[in-house]
Amino acid sequence: MSQDSKVKTTESTPPAPTKVRKWLPVLDPSGDYYYWWLNTMVFPIMYNLIIIVCRACFPDLQHSYLVAWFVLDYTSDLLYLLDIGVRFHTGFLEQGILVVDKGMIASRYVRTWSFLLDLASLVPTDAAYVQLGPHIPTLRLNRFLRVPRLFEAFDRTETRTAYPNAFRIAKLMIYIFVVIHWNSCLYFALSRYLGFGRDAWVYPDPAQPGFERLRRQYLYSFYFSTLILTTVGDTPLPAREEEYLFMVGDFLLAVMGFATIMGSMSSVIYNMNTADAAFYPDHALVKKYMKLQHVNRRLERRVIDWYQHLQINKKMTNEVAILQHLPERLRAEVAVSVHLSTLSRVQIFQNCEASLLEELVLKLQPQTYSPGEYVCRKGDIGREMYIIREGQLAVVADDGVTQYAVLGAGLYFGEISIINIKGNMSGNRRTANIKSLGYSDLFCLSKEDLREVLSEYPQAQAVMEEKGREILLKMNKLDVNAEAAEIALQEATESRLKGLDQQLDDLQTKFARLLAELESSALKIAYRIERLEWQTREWPMPEDMGEADDEAEPGEGTSKDGEEKAGQEGPSGLE
């Protein structure tokens, strides 16, 4: 590697992580502990979403179990508070390596909207119990602000489960249940406001036998709401304006939401992965293949972690397919705008023409490597070069442990084996072992595409070849004598080519002259033939000569005189 590359590598290396105490570890956002904590947070969030509204609309429920509600409320608040602590101890990826510095983690977390929502969800609004009484659970509605954490838990589970489609259906049913539950609570609250048993639409009078029980009240309300939101019908006609408004709102909600989802369930299941498949590779088929082939669990875990990394960090490996329908110039502009910051850090592309960048980005193939994975090994046949987009890679010895250098974002490698450097004793073989330290995003450029691009930009090709010579000299892989002999042979070949070009030019000149002479001779011959045709038209035809002989029969002398005269005229006429 050149000195400039080493300097850039040193600058791009993040500071060494500080030591963390064992009793306060930093969690990996893609690890198991963080995943199980997210699943734990599902319970307090779902508790608040379901129970608070139910307690506010069913007073008997609130009064009957007041102590239990206090215990569950403040237990969920404690979990909310612990969740903020977990967020302060959850690392994040920088250049593909997990950052475990608590100061950096805290600084990053407090600048996000999630921190503000988490704080707002823990505001002690229930302190108003002192003045308003303990039977107003709506004071805790700010706990709903922690719902994004629930969505994150669902998304993480969806990437880990072996049955993602079944989980999506279960998640959809949970959403439907929450909507019907809330609607049933509002229905009971509206019935209580209008008066139980006032008409057939509201909840019957609790004085009637059986309708005073809390379970009956909730089940009746849930059943009634299900009939409305599924648009099944068979519900009593509303009699008051408030009832009409409630029915209209429910019908609109049913048309926009639940009825549409239930009516197109098959298409939803079929197209459930369409959006993700457009950006991320389909991991369901790979999981199925590994399960059928009985791949060992360690390797299977590595594959799943790789897919999870792509989806969590929104990494795409098929950018060319995504942009394939755009016009070529527009596709090049989009690719340059996305990857310009990476390409501008590459030394050979810093002062190049914009057209070179446009051609280059259209041929780059993004690839992502997992921690500890080898990008290339010494002795492998080199068919492509790599540009580091994000992450860190190490040049290691054959033992895989000893590190010679660390490569960071903006550097490139692999060009030695695909560029025809004179005197290269390694040929097209790799000269080093390159291993990814963390998750690394690389751009791959094949030998054929590189030749096609650099053939139009000889200056960039010369810079890359010079860099390759410097690296080969440091590694004692450059044969100077062979390089000089190859240069001399190339010069001799070029001289012979120039001589052959000159001879070819001379032959073309002679051929042009011969062709001109041939055309001139052909014109002369055609002119002479045409002249002979005009002269022979005056000659008598054979029939005319026969009639002349018949007329000359009475006198032989006359015939002889005519023959002599014709003999005399014939040669003169031919001449």
From TrEMBL:
Its main location: membrane. Residues 558-567 have a biased composition (Basic and acidic residues). GO terms for biological process: sensory perception of smell. It is found in: Cell projection, Cilium membrane. It comes from the Eukaryota. The keyword Cell membrane applies. Keywords: cAMP, cAMP-binding, Cell membrane, Cell projection, Coiled coil, Ion channel, Ion transport, Ligand-gated ion channel, Membrane, Nucleotide-binding, Olfaction, Sensory transduction, Transmembrane, Transmembrane helix, Transport. Signal peptide: none annotated. Residues 536-575 are annotated as: Disordered. GO terms for cellular component: intracellular cyclic nucleotide activated cation channel complex; non-motile cilium membrane. It catalyses: Cs(+)(in) = Cs(+)(out); K(+)(in) = K(+)(out); Li(+)(in) = Li(+)(out); NH4(+)(in) = NH4(+)(out). SUPFAM superfamilies: cAMP-binding domain-like, Voltage-gated potassium channels. GO terms for molecular function: cAMP binding; cGMP binding; intracellularly cAMP-activated cation channel activity; intracellularly cGMP-activated cation channel activity; protein-containing complex binding. It is a multi-pass membrane protein. Residues 544-554 have a biased composition (Acidic residues). Belongs to the cyclic nucleotide-gated cation channel (TC 1.A.1.5) family. CNGA4 subfamily. This is Cyclic nucleotide-gated channel alpha-4. It comes from Mus caroli. The gene is Cnga4.
